[in-house]
């Protein structure tokens, strides 16, 4: 059974996001999505908020037919890296290799978003070659230049990587602009994660000019905000768990 999942979204917990998690859910449902991954920048606060509200279940099952996948977009030393299916401690500035290892320790998938995008901290080819990643975001609806998506697609083909698409939405109106269609009989966190690493269909559509301008403005505002200079020590865990 096909499920439409946007694997790259942000809420106002990101700092450069605008919409609340509830607004994101309402918009995604209205557009016919079956779920999305909440991948705020360097924080699990949005995921923790949704868990407290009962909108993310500990057992990984959907809530009222809608699945929210816990995630984080980590700003590693070499560029941005999505953790899909696993919450993480604060890791900003850590080496990408170390972040990949921690994602896998916690049962998640490591997926670089918008690689090659020179303006948005995409991880470069030389680093990708040495990373143990599970898939590659080959279509980002908010990419700076469309050719970057083409580069990512060709690299994923060359390496034989599973491919994903995401809206990279920072406003609820942009959710579902692009998404991944996951065909599985197990509509749960575990079932979706297992399907992501297989061949999937991608819905590919770019943000509207209005959404692109809104995202650019929010990014500039985020750059003006202070961030902690040094991340705290990483607590290593064993076993699986989101």
Task: Tell me what the structure shows.
By secondary structure, this protein is of the alpha/beta class. The protein has a single domain, classed as TIM Barrel, CATH 3.20.20.140. It is 29% helix and 20% strand. The chain has 7 helices and 9 strands; from the N terminus they run βαβαββαβαβαββαβα. A 7-stranded mixed beta sheet has the order 5-4-3-2-1-8-9, with helices on both faces. The chain has a two-stranded parallel ribbon with strand order 6-7. Helix 2 links the parallel strand 2 and strand 3. The relative contact order is 0.19. The C terminus is likely disordered.
SSE map:
Layout: E1 2-9, H1 21-30, E2 35-38, H2 45-52, E3 67-76, E4 79-84, H3 96-105, E5 109-111, H4 125-128, E6 136-140, H5 146-159, E7 163-166, E8 179-183, H6 189-196, E9 201-203, H7 209-224
Parallel strand pairs: 1-2, 2-3, 6-7
Antiparallel strand pairs: 1-8, 3-4, 4-5, 8-9
What's the rounded overall pLDDT mean?
A: 90
Question: What's the gyration radius in Å?
Answer: 16 Å
Taking the alpha carbons of the first and last residues, their distance comes to 24 Å
Fraction in beta strands: 15-25%
The fold-level CATH name is TIM Barrel
CATH superfamily: Metal-dependent hydrolases
Taking strands numbered 1, 2, ... along the chain, how are they ordered across the largest sheet? 5-4-3-2-1-8-9
N to C succession of SSEs: EHEHEEHEHEHEEHEH
- Shape annotation: globular
Largest sheet, if any? 7 strands, mixed
Under the CATH scheme, the architecture is: Alpha-Beta Barrel
Task: Show unreliable segments.
Answer: 226-232, 236-242
Helix content: 25-40%
Number of helices: 7
Identify the CATH class. Answer: Alpha Beta
Q: What structural class do the secondary elements suggest?
A: alpha/beta
When the domains are counted, the total is: 1
- The total strand number stands at 9
């Amino acid at each position: 059974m096909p499920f439409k999942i946007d694997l790259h979204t942000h809420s106002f917990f990101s700092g450069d996001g605008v919409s609340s998690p509830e607004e994101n859910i309402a918009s995604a449902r209205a557009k016919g999505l079956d779920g999305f991954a909440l991948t705020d920048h360097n924080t699990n606060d949005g995921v923790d908020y949704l868990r407290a509200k009962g909108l993310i279940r500990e057992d990984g099952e959907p809530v009222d037919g809608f699945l929210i996948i816990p995630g984080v977009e980590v700003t590693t030393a070499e560029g941005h890296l999505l953790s899909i299916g696993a919450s993480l401690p604060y890791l900003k500035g850590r080496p990408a290799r170390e972040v990949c290892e921690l994602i896998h320790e916690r049962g998640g998938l490591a997926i670089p978003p918008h690689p090659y995008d020179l303006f948005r901290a995409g991880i470069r080819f030389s680093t990708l070659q040495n990373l143990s990643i599970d898939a590659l975001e080959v279509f980002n609806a908010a990419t700076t230049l469309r050719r970057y998506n083409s580069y990512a697609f060709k690299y994923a083909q060359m390496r034989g990587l599973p491919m994903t698409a995401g809206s990279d939405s920072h406003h609820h109106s942009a959710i579902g602009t692009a998404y991944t269609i996951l065909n599985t009989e197990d509509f749960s966190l575990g079932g979706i994660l297992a399907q992501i690493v297989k061949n999937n269909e991608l819905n590919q559509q770019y943000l509207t000019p209005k959404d692109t301008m809104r995202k650019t403005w929010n990014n500039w505002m985020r750059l003006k905000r202070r961030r902690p200079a040094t991340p705290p020590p990483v607590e290593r865990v064993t076993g699986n768990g989101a």
